[in-house]
Amino acid sequence: MMKIKTFFRVIFFAVIILVSGQAGAQTSTDTVSTEGVVFGESEPVATDNVTATDSLNKDTSAVVPTTPQVPAGASGQGDGSLWGIFILGVIGGLAAFFMPCIYPMVPLTISFFTKRAETKGKGIQGAVIYGLSIVVIYVALGLLITALFGPGALNELSTDGYFNLFIFAVLVIFGISFLGAFEINLPSSLVNSLDAKSESKGLLGIFFMAATLSVVSFSCTGPLIGGIILNVANGAVMGPAVAMLGFSGTLALIFMVFAIFPGLMSSLPKSGGWLNSVKVILGFVELALSLKFLSGADLAFGWEFLDREVFLAIWIVLSALAGFYLLGKIKLPHDSDLKNVAVPRLLLSVIVFAFTVYLIPGLWGAPLKVISGLSPAMGTQDFVLTAGGTGSASAAHPGSKKYSDLFHKYTPHGIDAFYDYDEGLAYAKSVNKPVFLDFTGEQCVNCREMEQDVWSNPEVLKRLKNDYVVISLFTDSKEKLPESEFFQSAILKTQVNSVGKKFKHLQATRFNTIAQPFYVLANTSGEKMVQPSGADFNVESYIRFLDSGLAAFRK
C-alpha cells in the first residue's frame, strides 16, 4: 500500500512512545490537466499496451485513447490502500483522544447525556447521534478537500518546491505549538456561537455539541488531521474522506462506549501532566516529519543542502531530545514537575534511544530501511563507509550517459542504469538483452522503499545487474528540455517542456498510467512482454515477475 508502509514504520515508534502518528508526500509533477489518467504511487498493476509512434518527440491522435483505461490499484484506490488509509485515520483518532484538549472532556460529555436524557434509552440514543455527528463533520471535511483539490491536484503539487516549503513551515509551526511555545485556536466567537447552539433541545443541539468539540479541540487535533490528510491526499481519490472516517469513527466510538457504559470511566487514568507529555512527543514527531517536505523543496529547487547525512543528523538530535524529555531531563512550558520516572516512561525512553542509536550508522551509509522512504536518496550522501573502503555514494559512475548527472544519485546498489529511453533501448538492442523500464520519481517514496527493501535482495539485484538493461525514467523531473524538443501532449493536456513531462508523456501514451513506481519488462523494440508491476514488496513475487520477463524474452 502506497507510502503508508513507511509512514506506519515511523508511526509505530510514535504510538509506542505515547500513542501517536502523522505525515509525508510525493509523486508527479507540475500542475497539468491529466483527466482520466491514473494518478499516484502504484500498487501491483496490469495494463494493456497502447500503441505509440515516436511518443517521446511528438504527440499524435493515434496515441491518445478516448477513454484511458484505469489499471486496477494503480491509483492507490485498491482495497489494501484504502484499508491502510483507514487504519492511519484510526491511529490518528486514538492519538487525538489522549490529547489534553479532548481527554478531560470525556466526563463532561458523558454528564451531558446522562443529565438531559429522561431515560437510559434516550441517553444511549443521544450518545449514538453525538458519535454520528462527529463522523459526519470530519468526513465532510475530507470530502470538501477532495472536492476543492480534485483527485490529482495535491498529487501534482507534491513535487512543487513552493508547496513543499509551505507544508514544511506549517508542520514546523504545528510542532513548535505542540512543544508548548503557543496555542493554535480557532476564533472564540465561533466557539461561543456553536456552544450556544448546543444548548438547543433535540438532534440539532447534539449535533452542535459535536461541532463544539471539533472546534474546541482544534489546537490538538489540527496538526494530527493536517498531517494525515497531507499524507493520503495525493494517493487514493477518496483518501481524505476515508482517513477522516477512521479518525472520527474512532473518536466517536470511544465517546459512545463511555456514554453507554459510564462505569468504564473509573478505569481511565486521571488527567494530569502525562497528557502534555503525549502532546510534546507528537511535537518532536511533527518536527522530524516536516523535514520530508523540506527535502522535497531541496530537490525541486536543486539546492542540495539537505543531503542524507544532514537529514539524519537532525533526526538523531530530535530523537535524542525526545528520549531525554521522557527521562525528565528537559522541561518545557506546561510540563508538571517530574519527581521520579515511572517504569512505563522509562521503557518508552529506551525505545526512543534505541531508535536514535539505530539512526547513527546511517551517517556512514547504512541503508536504514525503516525510514528509507522518508530520508533523501543514498546517492545524496557525500560519505559512505563500505566494505571496500570509503568514498562518495556516486563517485564511481563514469557520467557519460544522458541525464546521468541528474539522476545517477538516485540509482542504488551499483546498478548501471540508463536515464534516457532511446539511449537505453539502443544499448539493449546492441547486447540483445531485455529492458527493465523503471518509471520512477525523485520524490517517490514507494520507489525508494522498493529500491531499499526489494532491489537490495541478492537474487533481485543479480537479475537487474546481469539479465536486464535498466532504464530509469524520472517522470517528476523539472529539468528543462531544449526548446527545439518542446511539443504539445494531448493526453497530458499541456506543453511538454521538461524531462519529467517527456517521460510522463511516454508512460501515459504507452501504458495509460502515470503511477509511480511502474515497472515494465520490454523487448529490444520497447514492447512489453508481460503485465507490468507496481509497488510489490513481496520479494518472491517480484523475482517471479522478473523471471517471467526473461522467459518471455527467450521464447
Kindly list the characteristics that best describe this protein.
mainly alpha; 52% helix; 555 residues; single chain; three-stranded mixed sheet; 18 helices
Task: Write up this protein.
Helix 1 runs antiparallel to helix 12 (343-359) and helix 4 (120-157) crosses helix 7 (203-216). Mean pLDDT is 76; it is low at 1-41, 43-55, 58-80 and 387-398. The protein contains 18 helices and seven strands. The two termini are 34 Å apart. Strand 1 and strand 2 form a beta hairpin. The chain is mainly alpha-helical. The longest helix has 38 residues, at 120-157. The strands form three sheets. A three-stranded mixed beta sheet has the order 4-3-7, with helices on both faces. The protein has a two-stranded antiparallel sheet with strand order 1-2. The chain has a two-stranded antiparallel sheet with strand order 5-6.
Topology at a glance:
Elements: H1 4-18, H2 79-97, H3 105-116, H4 120-157, H5 161-178, H6 188-197, H7 203-216, H8 218-232, H9 239-260, H10 273-301, H11 308-326, H12 343-359, E1 384-386, E2 389-391, H13 404-407, H14 421-431, E3 435-440, H15 445-453, H16 458-466, E4 469-474, E5 487-489, E6 494-496, H17 499-511, E7 518-522, H18 539-554
Parallel strand pairs: 3-4
Antiparallel strand pairs: 1-2, 3-7, 5-6
Run of helices and strands: HHHHHHHHHHHHEEHHEHHEEEHEH
Helical percentage: 40-55%
> Please, how many helices?
18
State which percent range the strand residues make up.
5-15%
- Unreliable spans are 1-41, 43-55, 58-80, 387-398
Arithmetic mean of pLDDT: 76
Cα radius of gyration in angstroms: 25 Å
* Strand segment tally: 7
- Biggest sheet strand line-up: 4-3-7
Main structural class: mainly alpha
Cα end-to-end separation:
34 Å
Please tell me what the overall shape is. elongated
Largest sheet: 3 strands, mixed
